[in-house]
Amino acid sequence: MLGFLWRAAGKNRLRPWRSPYLRWRIETYWGLHADRISPAEFRAFLWNHRRELLRFLRWADKMESAARARGAAQRPVPYHLEPARSSNPADSA
To answer: Are 45 and 30 spatial neighbours (Cβ–Cβ below 8 Å)?
Structure first.
């Protein structure tokens, strides 16, 4: 379970709210603009969605275990390297 979090946080392991990938995932899931996620909002997201996050981490662990059992090569987390853009037209004004 922790392996996914370690890879997903990337270079921002001690400051996961700065991770472009995690910020993009929170924006996609929660709708909060990725550029505006503060440490407090990141912690609030983790706390408010802890059950869903734990369920996802268990699923990800199960998928990684199954892939390892099949002998598949481990793939890196697909980082979203472009700056996040909102789909809300009001944000572009």
So the answer is: yes
